Amino acid sequence: MTMTRREALLSGAGMVLAATLPQGAALAQAAPPHRGGVMTVHLGSEQRILNPALRASTGVYVITSKIIEPLVDLGTSGRPEPVLATSWAASEDGKTVTFKLREGVKWHDGKPFTSADVQYSAMEQWKVHLNYGTTLQLYLDAVETPDAHTAVFRYSRPMPLSLLLRALCDLGYIVPRHVFQGTNVLENPANTAPIGTGPYKFVEYQRGQYVIAERNPDYWREGFPYLDRIVWRFITDRSAATAALETGQVQLSAYNGLPLADIDRLKTDERFEVSTRGVEANVFNNTLEFNTRRKELSDVRVRRAIAHAVDVNFFVENFLYGLGKPATGPIPSVSTEFFPNNPVPYAFDKAASEKLLDEAGYKRGAGGIRFTLRLVPIQNGEDVPLLATFIQQSLAAVGIRVEIVQLDIAGALTNVYRDWNFDLATGWHQYRGDPAVSTTVWYRSGSPKGSPWTNQYGWQSDTVDKLIDDAATEIDPVKRKALYADFVKAVNDELPVWMLTERPFYAVTSKKVQNHHISPRWDSGDWHDTWLLPS
Amino acid sequence: MRVLALALRRLAASLPTLFLILIGLFLLLQLAPGDTVDALMAQMGGGDPAMAEQLRSFYGLDAPVLIQLSRYIWRLVQLDLGFSAIYGKPVASVILERLPVTLLLMGTSLSFAFAVGMALGVLAARRVNKWPDALISTLGLIFYATPSFWFGMMGIVVFAIRLSWLPSGGFEEIGAGYTGLTRVADIAWHLVLPTATLALIFLSTYLRIMRASMLEVLTLDFVRTARAKGLSQTGVLVRHVLRNALLPGLTLIGLQAGTMLGGSVVVESVFNLPGLGRLAYESVVQRDLNTLLGIVFVSALLVILVNFIIDMLYAKLDPRISAER
User: Fold this and answer.
1) Is the pLDDT reported for residue B208 higher than 80?
2) Hey, of B31, B37, B43, B273, which one would you mutate to test binding to chain A, going by the most A CBs within 10 A of its CB?
3) Which of A28, A529, B108, B162 has its C-alpha lying 20 to 30 A from B242's C-alpha?
4) B100-285+298-324 in CATH: which number?
């Protein structure tokens, strides 16, 4: 077999890449990347949309980030690196951010990518429709396009550059203006048949079954990608997903897509790598929300007593297979830029808990019961009902009776966030790289009634509101970190919602997959340099 | 002609029932807390209220319940099943995509269960109270008592993971691009485990019914007559006993067509088949009212159709039934 010039060039590009990769993963790959092959990926839930400029969710990114590209993405360095933007600069006052855009990039339909696309995506989709994007870009006044490859973002309040760049990795996907302009954005067919600039072109979406994308031969990174095709299969039954992985029908399951028991079991299986590497950008907490409209819970001593009564370590070891640790507050320890290095605020201490409850004036009454609370589990994951039961039993030990109200997720969200019909609620909080992205809304007052995962606990603190607002517009990184440290201290003290655990997401990957999980949000990355060992 | 009249009469009788079921279901689902936008927000992992409002008006959920209901009924009269919130396309086309999978699964399982159950029932009846009868009856009881998801999971563990003989799930090899006979073979290959799982449970019912009715018919006078005129044992069984003993089994098919649609929810989930059962489950969880009502509508039609065919078969097997009319 003779090697064509193109192939020679391509394998050369692969070697250069392997040489520049800093991780140990790169060292293990002595062989040059193999071109071709089909990679199949498991997805546990099906989003109704394939447009990341309208819907911020890992379930959307896992598919669309291979087809549609953002301005910047977290690279192997762990920091935002150029993708469609090649460089950026902020003005002194922090109100103007200028992006230089990559030249010679083409949409999958052949049209050139220009600054007009950036302007359209930011002003018409992120700012108007994108969840979290609407908050992030609230003060975005205009995007100016002095030339085809420059986009100038103008804000009416200072926008910290580091916040913007980190947030744009998730909330900065660019969609083609010529496809959307002048149509009803939400009903545009491109929302389920995406057109992007990415390494893979969309082929087919069969609802409830699969999505297929194939190699984009005109990709701007010459010689990439390696894979011929990617197939995403929707497998809602988690055990069935494990079976698909074990029989080789699927090579990857990300973001805790499998049952915890299977994740634990596959750790020792030679055929797979089970790790949190390449998923670090997203961390989640088990939460306990207090409805402070309830008389007993309006007393901070009772809230603290509840936190003292639950043995989080025991829960992590025995229910979560040790896949996590007790949380220190809303900013997780892996977020090095913002973590204030504080200890776990409330240790397990039954005596302290009982003492606080006595002090608050709720003595044990008939049958040793102080009072009764209703707990609504918000069933994001399999561990939520387990935690609900664990909380119920832990609180029984200090004299608080808990009734668990079983609802499915839509019902639970309505009960807690719209009708305020709960005393305690437990679910997940997800941290997305910067506290301003999706964390501070859990504490800031003024969220309209009914918006899920916001402060709907009837709790309000002027100090905390001010800290949140100041930090969101502070452009000095050092001062910003200090403001968030104060924020963590204040909310740990007041405890309107208690973060119990800090848990990484786990991905299970077949060892056939090479160059995987080499950046902090790899599963939501573009996979242009991913390849498969030939079978 | 009489067949057509019978068909029309049956259809006319079931229409009001169908309407009542749909309206009842519509109102029942209004009682469930949360709507499709809540479910969507849950899946997204968060969103803001402005977006929720936009989506609600997009899905037509901002109107009062009665107006939503009257809109729905008006559309239904025009045979328009509406627009699916989860799938973003007309409910009719969503259901049409899923229907063949469920029909195939149901058809093969039902035929398999009926054929094998019948054969085993006959066998057990011929050797009543001997060891084959004991063995068959015990097995039947075990199958009947085991939950279908467990059968499915064990099937996957043994035949897909340990032995790698069969695929662990899915309807066909995705992206393989098979056509013609290769595709048929591929689908058949994927359906072996799910069909066996679904069939085993129903098989035991047919087995027991068949055994009992065989035993009953064997004691009737005409069987003694048939024997007396010198027919062989097989001749008696096939020509006289079997034909009469089949009727209860047939009745059961009609009754079980509905149950099987329900039972396929579990099997479709375990084997990841894109069928109607899983669609129904997802529509409930995601509060996709239109799709759910559409599925109820189509399922009801299916059950009516199956029962109609059974009625026709009765007439064929037992001429007395049509003669009375």
Assistant:
1) yes
2) B43
3) B108
4) 1.10.3720.10
